Structure formats: C-alpha cells, structure tokens
Amino acid sequence: MATDDLVEVADHAEQAREFLTRCREYLAAGDLHQASEKGWGAAAHMAKAVAAAQGWEYATHADFSVVLNQAWEVTRNDRIRDLRGIANELHGNYYRRKRHLNANVIGRDIESVAELVEILAPLTMPSS
User: Considering the entire predicted model, what is its pTM?
Assistant: First the structure.
C-alpha cells in the first residue's frame, strides 16, 4: 500500500475513534442529535478506512452499505450486517424531533458502533 493510502487509512480510523469519544460526551451532556451524528460519523469513517485499505470505492453516502457488505463478504461476520443498520439508524436521528429521541437507545446504539469499529479494525491493516 502506498504511503498516501496508509495516511488516509490512519486518518479515517483516528477520526472514527475521535467521533466515538465525542458521541459519548454529547450523550452525557444530553445532546442526542449530536451524539447520534457523531456515532454515525464514527461508523462512516471506519468504513472509509476499510475502503481505503482494501482498495474499495467509498465516494457517496450509499457506499457505506456497499463497503460493509464487502466487509461481511471478507469476514463472514454476521454482526456487521446488524451493526450497519444500527449505524444508519443513528444517522436517521438527525432528522427526528428531539422528543422522539431516546437517550438509552442512543447510548446502546453508540456502543454497537464501537463494536463495529473494533470488528472492522483488522480490515484496515495492510495485507502482506
């Protein structure tokens, strides 16, 4: 993998972990919209890291599901499919009214995204 590709992978993986920290902070502060969106961002950036490492396309929002489907093909880890939907649900919270958001559900969803980040992490390593 070229040095530029390694930098891109590392940047996206670092951003994913930073967003995980931030979404937990937003959740603790009661900002459920931002907690949800940063949770989604963590999942999206880790998917971008995987795509860059594996040489897969990630150019649009729709590519999130495509990349996670490809990750499932490689790993056969069925949790990826479940966690993909949870990440998308967090993103959907941005469009919901505050009174329809549930902090307990969002907290659990954030921890599911953390699980997804860990499952995907090995796919960001350069293959030898």
Answer: 0.94
